[in-house]
Amino acid sequence: MFLTIPTLMTWTRIVAIPLIVGVFYLDIPAAQRNLIATVMFVVFAATDWLDGYLARKLNQTSSFGAFLDPVADKFLVCASLLVLVHLQRADVFVALIIIGREIAISALREWMAQIGASRSVAVHMLGKVKTTVQMIAIPFLLYDGLLFGIINTPVWGTWLIWLSAILTVWSMVYYLQKAIPEIRARAK
């Protein structure tokens, strides 16, 4: 099912990327750009949960949707990280860790699927926690100010994005450990 409601919602995360990037080229005060980009990121990121819920509720799950969903998430996160690096709100090293892990684990999952061992690298709770921390850190860093007059989002966002980088490495090690037996079995 190529054009279901959940799949269209997933596509919105991909369409959101140039919109979020484009906000920072608008000729409006920086605080407004930050707020617009933050709200857009939060709304589009929320579609990740909503499209999965609707796919199950409406019985519209599909192989294509299962493929596109994590791709859209990775695009949204990676594009946002690149914007944050460009704005000097995130360290390039953090972005390299997170983006590098996404590429490595995606390639690992593809290879494991080709050899019929995809269950050994199925999504784990550690990966979900990593994603949750990223999805909190990124809007904090996009906002770049005092939230509700008390939350210093640059400070919290920086701590959270570094925590996300640590969880990123940890989850990559976890997935690689799960894949090693399959890799050894085929490395003859």
Describe this structure in words.
Helices cover 78% and strands 2% of the residues. The protein is mainly alpha-helical and 188 residues long. A two-stranded antiparallel ribbon has the order 1-2. Helix 2 (30-57) runs antiparallel to helix 3 (63-86) and helix 4 (92-114) runs parallel beside helix 6 (153-186). The mean pLDDT is 88.
The structural class is mainly alpha
Strand order of the largest sheet: 1-2
Helix count, per DSSP? Answer: 6
Fraction of residues in helices?
over 70%
Beta strands, count: 2
User: Whole-number radius of gyration?
Assistant: 18 Å
Q: How much of the residues is beta strand, in percent? A: under 5%
Major beta-sheet overview = 2 strands, antiparallel
What is the H/E string?
HHHHHEEH
Uncertain stretches:
none
The outline comes out as globular
Mean model confidence by pLDDT: 88
Separation of the first and last Cα atoms: 40 Å
